[in-house]
From TrEMBL:
GO-annotated molecular function: single-stranded DNA binding
InterPro entries in the record: NA-bd_OB-fold, RADX
Annotated protein name in UniProt: RADX protein
Length: 306
């Protein structure tokens, strides 16, 4: 059928009601958001957004309402979609933005694609990877993997991807989303090593929309975390309190979930696998720990400072 592209949409969307089909690849995926309120009767108050791209650039795509439980788990990073009967809207100004793996890619930030179950009901088709043709010009998913030895030189809030062998995973803890509110974030601490440093990655992993993965992180699994943010406590000794925390677009993968993921082609991922092949599993198991209370960043040395 006659297709359009994201660049053409941005230039012409105000003059049209109906749009030609779009062929795009998912580059980033946010966690699922529930926006229901007790006083509002809504059947499916869910929303998730994705960053999708074609040969002309990248744009946000928002999945609404009943389409979320139907499609969210099928729409993975790297999935190619054919979209028909979608809507175009001015973009929401306060949403978070992932850091693209390809810094040269053009971003269309003024509008977003809206996928709804009515007005109009969007038609979504997933194109199997083996049917995707090179002449479509769809970009590949690119990552920003770092090694542990590179972490100490990175600035606060830098966005990166990591892979490592889990040596410690703490119990699930919770923190209030806002003061005096009854909503909580769930999170757990983990350590992962990659052989490039004596120190592990210290990871603050908030529960994403992947409960099956979040609950199964355990020592000796290969852990991949994407779109992590560097956190430095700039008031203390910066090198001793550096850790990584999840963002709204983070994805977490463990052994058993890696097959077919786009990052398996990344050079640093391949280097890590080679390093693991040279390690003794029995030696690594002796160094692993699970559970317990993990106070991090460390409290001050004396009680009056605390």
């Amino acid at each position: 059928s006659k297709l359009t592209n994201l660049g053409h949409l941005e230039m012409t969307w105000r003059n049209r009601v109906h749009f030609h089909p779009l062929l795009v690849r998912i580059l980033h995926k946010s966690r699922l958001r529930y926006y229901g309120k007790p006083e509002k009767a809504m059947d499916m108050p869910y929303q998730a957004y994705f960053e999708v791209a074609d040969g002309s650039g990248m744009m946000s795509m928002v999945l609404w309402s009943s389409l979320c439980p139907e499609w969210y788990n099928s729409m993975k990073v790297g999935t190619v979609l054919l979209l028909e009967q979608y809507a175009i809207k001015d973009s929401y100004p306060f949403k978070t933005h992932p850091t693209p793996g390809d810094s040269q890619m053009k971003r269309f930030a003024t509008i977003e694609i809206s996928l709804n179950d009515r007005n109009p009901p969007t038609k979504i088709s997933i194109i199997p990877e083996e049917m995707v043709k090179p002449e479509w010009g769809l970009p590949e998913v690119k990552y920003r993997f770092i090694t542990r030895s590179e972490l100490d030189d990175l600035p606060h809030n830098y966005s990166c991807d990591v892979i490592g062998l889990v040596t410690f995973v703490g119990r699930v803890e919770r923190t209030r989303k806002r003061e005096h509110c009854e909503d909580f974030w769930l999170y757990r601490w983990a350590h992962a090593i990659d052989g490039t440093s004596d120190h592990p990655f210290i990871l603050e992993l908030f529960a994403t929309s992947q409960p099956d993965v979040f609950e199964r992180i355990h020592p000796m699994t290969y852990l991949v975390c994407t779109q992590m943010r560097v956190v430095r406590d700039l008031t203390e000794n910066p090198s001793s309190t550096i850790y990584l925390t999840t963002s709204n677009e983070s994805q977490i993968f463990i052994t058993g979930w890696h097959k077919g993921q786009p990052y398996t082609k990344d050079t640093k991922v391949k280097n890590f696998i080679q390093w693991m092949k040279s390690q003794s599993e029995a030696d690594q198991i002796k160094k692993t720990v699970i559970g317990g209370y993990y106070p991090f960043p460390r409290p001050p040395d004396n009680f009056s400072d605390y």
